[in-house]
Amino acid sequence: MAIVDVTVVPIGTDNPSVSEYVSEIQKVLQTYEGKITFQLTPMSTLIEGELPVLFEVIQAIHEVPFEKGCSRVATNIRIDDRRDKATTLKGKLESVARELEK
């Protein structure tokens, strides 16, 4: 299972706020529930799942600003694909918490 940190940036909007785009992206992510886990953060969205599904999801959320009238979109993707052991968003946080307890 891989974890993706993704930020979709609509370019050339009339308003500096992007919350309307973020909320639409979250709605698209909800349609993938059961296939992925996702978490909105103040600066990006974290998504975990199988890599082929994640690429499908990324393409779907990249399209959201275009569907809302944007003519340019920049999407930043960072992939953590660890294959020597299973990792999850929750597991990574728990690992750090264990280290803090030492």
Overview of the structural elements:
Belongs to the UPF0045 family. It holds the Pfam family Thiamine_BP. InterPro entries: MTH1187/YkoF-like, Thiamine_BP, UPF0045_domain. This is Thiamine-binding protein domain-containing protein. With 102 residues, this protein is an alpha+beta fold. The longest helix is centred in the C-terminal third of the chain and has 13 residues.
Search tags:
102 residues, alpha+beta, Alpha-Beta Plaits, four-stranded antiparallel beta sheet, 4 helices, 40% helix, 27% strand, elongated
Number of strands: 4
Q: Number of domains in the coordinates?
A: 1
Named CATH architecture: 2-Layer Sandwich
Question: Any idea of the CATH topology?
Answer: Alpha-Beta Plaits
CATH class: Alpha Beta
Return residue spans where pLDDT drops below 50 for at least 5 consecutive residues. none
Question: Radius of gyration over alpha carbons?
Answer: 15 Å
Mean pLDDT: 95
Structural class: alpha+beta
Q: Beta fraction of the residues? A: 25-35%
- What is the distance, rounded to the nearest whole angstrom, between the alpha carbons of the first and last residues? 28 Å
Largest sheet properties:
4 strands, antiparallel
Read across the widest sheet, the strand sequence of neighbours is 2-3-1-4
SSE arrangement, N to C: EHEEHHEH
Shape type: elongated
Report the total helices. Answer: 4
Helix share bin: 40-55%
